[in-house]
Amino acid sequence: MSIEELADMVRNLLAEYIVNVEVGKDLVHVEVKEENIIEAAKRMKEAGFDHVKDVTAIDYPKEGIIKIFYHLSSYSKKELSRYIVGLGYSIPRDKDSVPSLYSVWTSADFQEREVYEGFGISFEGHPDLRPLLLAPTVAELKPLRKDFVVKEEPIFKK
Question: Can you list the positions of beta strands (E) in the chain?
Fold first, then answer.
């Protein structure tokens, strides 16, 4: 299977949900409508994408949105295993809760927790949504958003 064949497969699989598709060397990024993310995820899993490699969020403060992407791959289907599909959607920056895909892929567990602690986005239906690496007081500050200000500390005091 070529990357273009994979992109066509994803386009056909998610046709009515697609907002945008981008094709790279070994990567297909597909953005869907937020309200269809769970159904899109189920279709991707049925097609053979059996695990989440990564969950990430990208903050676009000027546009007023945050994009959430799940990077998917396959252990069980050799023809899919060499590729990654980014399945994502956009939300308004002031939205603080989205559906969890943990019920589709349990491998989204820790990655959704990382997005929660870094961006302050709650994943509805996640069984253990608490900060993974940061202290709760730091996580409340949403330190991975672009408007987070890091206080500079002098290295040497005079």
Answer: 18-23, 27-32, 51-60, 65-73, 84-92, 97-99, 122-124
pLDDT at 157: 64
3-state secondary structure of 116: helix
Question: Is the sign of the CA dihedral 131, 132, 138, 139 positive or negative?
Answer: negative
Radius of gyration (C-alpha) of the chain in whole angstroms: 17
Going along the chain from its start, the domains and CATH numbers come out as 3-139 (3.30.460.80)
Length of the chain: 158
Tokens of residue 127, six digits: 């069984």
Half-sphere exposure of 141 (CA within 13 A, CB side): 12
Tens digit of each residue's pLDDT (9 = 90 or more) over 19-58: 999 999 889 999 999 999 999 999 999 999 999 999 999 9
